[in-house]
Design brief:
single chain; alpha+beta; five-stranded antiparallel sheet
């Protein structure tokens, strides 16, 4: 009997000591990031049967468990990815917002000065200072387009650096998670230890949350204690003890772009299989890629479209008139050293295209009054090109074949069957699956420059009597300010160049405000989820203080029982 009382008391003493140690550990880690409070799970020992009934035999420590919710953890992981996605996009687009609307870097003042100079020249078309002022305003306009495009290119480069840094962090974190998987599996496989390595699991969960800031992942818990992590497109990042790296490389067809993907063996060679931003879900990586491929591409294309259209329209008027010397007017603006199309457009083949008898695509013509500020994805299906707006996710549409004695070509048309642009294939038998990106106006603002340098070369007159004040041609140039010369596809009336710029400023501003609201709302949601998780899993100092008192009293009581059992045993010895 005395031995039984002693054993019961000793088990209670051990349980109280474990409770004190666990509570002390909780208090020590109250400010440890990612720590989940722990609790001792006690279990009564089997009772001993006797002639008077079943008598308890004490208590055992079943385990020390984390207070943890898989559901709340998944919610926090998702909220973290969503906040990081919108925050990444907002941080980039806010820079564009300040750039586009600024008078010193935007287009508003340069456009105004150009048309104002044309108006001044129309009042005295033979005046050489007025002609020089017009040329200077035109040169400033071309320079403003150049500088604005350069800043957008710099922002593209900065975004690429953000992408590269994010990929580095992803690979670093996934490597640590794979290592922790190995350690956790090893600990759980030990026969003498049936408990879970709580501290290692906390550390792994903190790393997964850190990973969720960079890229949204799907988590799959395995029976052996490891976790597998996958991207939104199913690409594995961590499978048990193996980490699969994400890679970056400069696009060989477009050195201003950084490709992101996974390296796989294709036809015996290592090749980067690029990741589609739309399949990545949320996270900072998807945010940066989404901004670069959607908003930044659209804004840069719009600036390029305005440069190309105003250059084309002014050149058309110039070439219809005569200069001060009675000579036929020449183009005021040039785009590169080749044709207008070669100076404003770009075609980028996919790096995964077939290298056997490769096909190239070349732009043939662009209707700048109808084309939109979008890029087109062209893919070869059944030996014929099909297209869709890049990033739209829409079904592909067959390009229209046009038979021409000089060489057959294909057209992309609007809903009214009017051609928007045309392109040619270099190969009569292109490889199925080959894809190309058509950028109709991407390089226009970069390549825009002045083609005239002498004041007398301005074709202000529509006849040869410019010296007597004919100003019809320069008036036609000034009238371009309000003429609807853009976005006339599908039978639309279109907008003027000035209105197009104002729409761009408004679109960027609205998008920046939209992303700011989205970022702030996701931050509030994330904070709410974190507060809910902390309420369950975080260390509450008041609760831990109460536990300290409870376990202290239990320890003292168990110690008193042990002393009592010793006294009882000594009394029995004295009797005998």
């Amino acid at each position: 009997m005395t031995n039984s009382v002693y054993g019961i008391a000793l088990s209670g003493l051990n349980a109280a000591r474990s409770g004190l140690a666990t509570t002390s550990n909780n208090i020590a880690n109250a400010n440890t990031v990612g720590y989940n409070r722990q609790q001792v799970i006690q279990q009564a020992r089997p009772s001993f049967g006797s002639d008077i009934g079943y008598i308890g035999q004490g208590v055992d420590i079943e385990s020390v468990q984390r207070v943890y919710s898989e559901f709340l953890n998944a919610q926090e992981q998702k909220a973290t990815s969503e906040y990081a996605f919108f925050n990444a996009k907002y941080s980039q687009i806010s820079r564009v917002d300040g750039l586009i609307a600024d008078d010193t870097s935007g287009l508003s003042s340069a456009l105004s000065d150009f048309f104002s100079a044309a108006q001044t020249l129309s009042t005295s078309p033979g005046d050489l200072p007025a002609r020089q002022n017009f040329l200077s305003a035109a040169d400033s306009l071309a320079g403003r387009f150049n500088s604005l495009n350069a800043v957008l290119d710099d922002l593209r480069a900065a975004t690429n650096l953000q992408v590269k840094d994010t990929v580095t962090q992803i690979n670093d974190v996934t490597g640590q998670i794979a290592e922790l998987n190995d350690r956790i599996v090893a600990v759980k496989s030990q026969d003498f230890n049936s408990g879970a390595p709580n501290d290692l699991m906390d550390k792994r969960d903190a790393l997964i949350k850190q990973l969720a800031e960079q890229v949204q992942v799907t988590r799959v818990n395995m029976d052996d204690g490891s976790v597998n992590l996958f991207l939104g497109n199913g690409q594995p990042l961590v499978v048990k003890t193996n980490a699969f790296k994400v890679s970056t490389e400069v696009d060989p067809q477009d050195p201003k772009n950084l490709l992101v993907g996974t390296t796989q063996v294709v036809n015996g060679q290592n090749r980067l299989i690029t990741l589609d931003p739309s399949t990545l879900g949320k996270g900072a990586l998807a945010g940066y890629l989404s901004f670069r491929e959607t908003e930044l591409a659209e804004y840069q294309n719009t600036v390029g479209l305005m440069a190309a259209r105003i250059g084309e329209a002014v050149n058309t008027v110039q070439q219809a008139g005569v200069d001060l010397d009675g000579n036929a007017g020449q183009a005021l603006f040039a785009f590169g050293t080749g044709s207008l199309v070669s100076g404003v457009s770009r075609v980028v083949p996919n790096t995964a295209n077939s290298t056997t008898n490769p096909t190239t695509v070349s732009m043939r013509s662009i209707d700048l009054s109808k084309v939109s500020a979008v890029d087109y994805e062209v893919t070869i299906v059944g030996g014929q090109p099909q297209y869709r707006v890049q990033g739209s996710g829409s079904p592909f549409t067959a390009a229209t074949l046009v038979n021409d004695p000089g060489g057959d070509y294909y057209e992309i048309r609007d809903s009214s069957n009017a051609p928007i642009l045309s392109f040619q294939l270099s190969n009569a038998s292109p490889q199925n699956g080959d894809t190309f990106t058509l950028m109709p106006t991407r390089d226009a603002a970069q390549n825009m420059r002045m083609a005239l340098s002498k004041p007398n070369e301005v074709a202000a007159s529509s006849t040869t009597n410019a010296s007597v004040g004919n100003n019809e041609n320069i008036k036609a140039i000034n009238a371009l300010q309000n003429q609807r010369t853009l976005f006339q596809s599908n039978g639309a009336a279109g907008v003027s160049i000035s209105d197009a710029f104002n729409q761009l400023v408004s679109k960027v501003g609205n998008k920046a405000r939209e992303l700011k609201v989205s970022t702030e709302s996701r931050e509030v949601l994330l904070n709410q989820v974190v507060e809910t998780r902390d309420a369950l899993s975080g260390v509450n100092m008041d609760e831990e203080a109460a536990n300290l008192l409870k376990y202290q009293q239990a320890y003292q009581a168990a110690g008193r029982v042990i002393s009592l059992s010793k006294e009882m045993f000594e009394q029995i010895l004295q009797i005998f």
